[in-house]
Specification:
The protein has 341 residues and is of the alpha+beta class. The protein is 32% helix and 25% strand.
Length: 341
Amino acid sequence: MTSLSPIGKFIHSLAVLLKSAACLCLGTTSLFAQKGGEAEKTRQYFSEPHLGTIVQIVFYSEDKEHSQKLAKQCFERIEKLNRIFSNYLPDSEVSQLCAKPVKVACKVSDDLFEVIAQAQEISAATGGAFDITLGRVTRKWREKKLSQEKATVRESQATYQDVVLNPGAKSVLLRQTLKIDLGGIAKGYIADQLMVILKKAGIKQAAVIIGGEMVFTEAPPGKAGWTVGIERPSHQVLGMLKLSNIALSTSGDSYQFFEKDGVRHAHLIDPFNRKPKTDRRNVTILARSAMLADAWATALRVSAPEAALKLAKEEKEIEAVFIPFGKPAASTAGFPKLMKP
């Protein structure tokens, strides 16, 4: 979550090119600039490379100096949270937790406990489709090494059930040696935390974008909502949404993958066989928080298509659209109708 990957550098250069054009964010979703009239004079835009992607902050304020201070506060908060959540950093809080003796409860920070607790809830709700204990496997993926483990030996491997929480003490106990990877939930939490900073400062109209994670407050001045493009796995825009006071996350393999022996291996790992997903499919989630949207998008993307759609329809806190490569999209009943691009 720390260094800017080649993919991140690619996104950064495109973001720079697009900053003054129509699109603010390039990924499996795109936020289109809300331009026009007097509102443009108060529109504040800031971006920096963090977390292996480009963090973009857009809000409306007439005080440019105060806006710059707010943006600085947000980017500093990202760095602090990265030092908690990153499994790239050997001295991060989560890395230190995994280095502790097993079967010993360890008190953790409020930030780390909240993220792990939410992760565990979604793991239980999805029957293990979301699992933060895949750190060893995700590291192999980054090294382009494919796991040779068989699905039948999953019982001897760590799962989310090996992470035990004590809410009263804010402590975490690991039942066996494992590596935690919060990559499927931490960016969403960080996006939410940046929005907390903006709201406390009195900002009412804002958007925070961290790769495929987006969180919005009220619509820009004179607009019906923040205009977001939903992409197909082929990078074409399938349709547009106008959103406010909601979070959105998209999980897909459009940008993070490698090819070996003619097979495309996504960064998304199936917890049940410990192997990268090889099908091409985008899943976009709407939820009340970016953390929820982030984790559910990951869980439903690694699940089998039929099971994922069934789960999404049963879960009251989210709405979802599933976009397979070269096939029609399917969505939950409450997902907004996409407008033509």
